[in-house]
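Chapter summary example.
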Amino acid sequence: VHLVESGGGSVQRGGSLRLSCATSGFRFSNYEMRWYRQRPGKGRELIATISVGDHFRNVEETLADRFAISRDDDNNIVYLQMNRLKTEDTALYYCRRSTDDYWGQGTQVTVVS
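The structure predicted for these 113 residues follows.
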């Protein structure tokens, strides 16, 4: 099982980024997928979940007006679209296969003012 995040970087406040999590080694379409982040000095927090078959999406309430999760079952990728970024969104962003112990290595997002 492999999960590889990409798409992070440094962005101006108010900008947008789309994170990708490319997966392999398992039947992607059979699994719920999640995005987490870990901000400096904080614990890892769940920010978005997408169900099998894309029947259900959930984004943490305080982020739901700016972030969106999606999936591409043909290419085994889960995305996190982040808009109107704020400096407090600076974090290491991770994808995870459901609640399993399979995580990516993370991609750093830095929002500068």
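To summarize the output: The chain has no helices and ten strands.
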